[in-house]
Give the backbone structure.
Amino acid sequence: MHPRRWIEIRPAGVYCVPGDFYIDPTRPVDRAVVTHGHADHARAGHGAVLATAETLAIMRTRYGEDMTARETPLAYGETLTIQGVTLSLHPTGHILGSAQARLEHDGGAIVFSGDYKRRPDPTCALFEPAPCDVFVTEATFALPVFMHPPIGEEIAKLLASLKQFPERCHLVGVYALGKCQRLIMALRDAGYDETIYLHGAMVRLVELYEAQGLKLGPWEVVTPQLAPTLAGKIVLCPPGALNDRWSRKLPDALTAAASGWMRIRARAKQKGVELPLVISDHADWNELTQTLQDVGAPEVWVTHGRDDALVHHATQNGFDAKALHLLGYEDDSE
Ligand SMILES: [Zn+2]
Ligand SMILES: [Zn+2]
């Protein structure tokens, strides 16, 4: 049966009728399948949560042990049948534990991508196309202007700046979940083996990634005593802390930010970012359009982001495409 006959868009989000569960609901529900740990997809207070073990661990870290009454871990590629709906999870290359949810019912299959990217990332498994009749995709950076450069180029800019301004503390705004750990790995890949300093808000998720086996190298938390001594060092903080009272204790901080939005000069300027680094955990325009080809589903539904451009492109390329206009999935801080 075609998925359009058993998938509904409800106020709490996308709902699977025969399975009686939601995918990434934006308000508390009885049963939720959660694609990944970012706050706009993973919320506390559901009766039951099904997700990868890594996503469940991230949710417990962020929301506490009582984030849900019942947890069901499902590994990539494993299947579980819920009231006639066969569910499986597949990697998306977005962050640790992130998954596409594939639902099959009565001969029809639909895949919810959640957020994804196609580039190799040592902090998570590579995106795997899964066969389906309907592919549900994000569209955060779905404009041809969004072309993310190789991460190595952006890291080289940061290291060059560090060399040029050794008296300045290099303060980099990064999202605490995913971007932070990926940036640390990229610095290590580029041969930077010095201690990296972290805002206190990054620590628990960094420790969680380490507990999953990631080798992030030496790091230390910034304390009030330590802060004035960090000239020539790299400090990572949440984007919101770049220009707040906390950062004023750092010696002559040079502000950088790692985000796909840094492609937009005006946005970097508005946020007071001196060194914009275009590093994104979302697919850029080419990755999005390539993914439609790789997945090969005849029908494409677009959840959030720049849906017009992607729907238009998909339609022109022979896909049956539509926008779902889902609200509540903000990737502002991505
Ligand atoms: Zn995300
Ligand atoms: Zn998202």
Observations:
- The CA atoms of residues 170 and 321 lie 44 Å apart.
- DSSP finds seven helices and 19 strands in the chain.
- The chain has two domains: 3-145+282-323, 151-277.
